[in-house]
Amino acid sequence: MQRIPSFFLDTMHSHEFVQQLDVIAADQWGEHLPVHVVEQLPAQGITVFGVTDDASDTAAFSARYGFGLEDCANTIVIRYRKDGGEHYAALVSLGARRLDINGAVKAVLGAQRLSFAQREAAVEHSGMEFGGITAFGLPQDWRILVDAAVMERTQIVMGAGVRAAKLLLSPEVLRQWPRCEVAALTLPVSVE
User: Fold this and answer.
1) How far apart are CA 135 and CA 85, in angstroms?
2) CA nearest 11: which of 154, 189, 179?
3) What are 147-164's pLDDT values in tens digits?
4) Is residue 1 situated within a structural domain?
5) Residue 54 pLDDT level (bands cut at 50, 70, 90)
6) Which value, in Å, is the radius of gyration of the alpha carbons in the chain?
7) Which domain holds residue 71?
8) What's the whole-model pTM score?
9) Residues 6+ apart with CB under 8 A from 29
10) Whole-number percent of the chain with pLDDT over 70
11) Cα-to-chain-centroid distance, residue 28
C-alpha cells in the first residue's frame, strides 16, 4: 500500500483514513480503470485508489473512508433536448448539495427538456460502470458541467469509471481541464 502525497494530507480532515487508502500507482491505472478514462486523466494532481464495491456509493464511501459528503463529487448523466436534437451531458456536484435540474442546469444547457439518463443508457454511452461514472473519459460531444461549489473545496473524491476505484484530486485539476465548464448548478444550502 502506498501513501497519499503530503499535499493532500495537509488538507484532509481524517488523516488516519487517508493513510489507509489503497493507492494504485500511475503505471497500473490501465489494469484497473477503463482505457478511455486513463487516456483523459491528467498526468499530475490525481491519486487513484481502490475501494470495495459495497463502499462505492457516496454515502457508504463517506462512512467507510471518512470523507465528508461535502468532499465527495458525484458525476450524474443527463439527457436533454436542444435545437431538435437529443444530447447527453455530465453534471459534477457534491454529495452534500442538490442539483437545480429544472432551473440552473436547464438554463446553462439551454435545454428545452431534460431528464436523468436511464441507468442502461448512462452505462452504454459512457462506457463506465454505474456508480463509478466520472467526468474523465466521456464522449467528446458531451458537455461536462461542474457545480461552482465543487471548486470551493480543497480536495474532492470522485468516480474513476469503475466501482472498485476512486479519484482524489484538487478541484483545480478540473478547472484546468479544457472540457470542464464551471457554473452554479445546485440549490442554495438551507441553514436550519
Assistant:
1) 22
2) 154
3) 999 999 999 999 999 999
4) no
5) confident
6) 16
7) 6-181
8) 0.86
9) 38, 41, 48
10) 89
11) 20
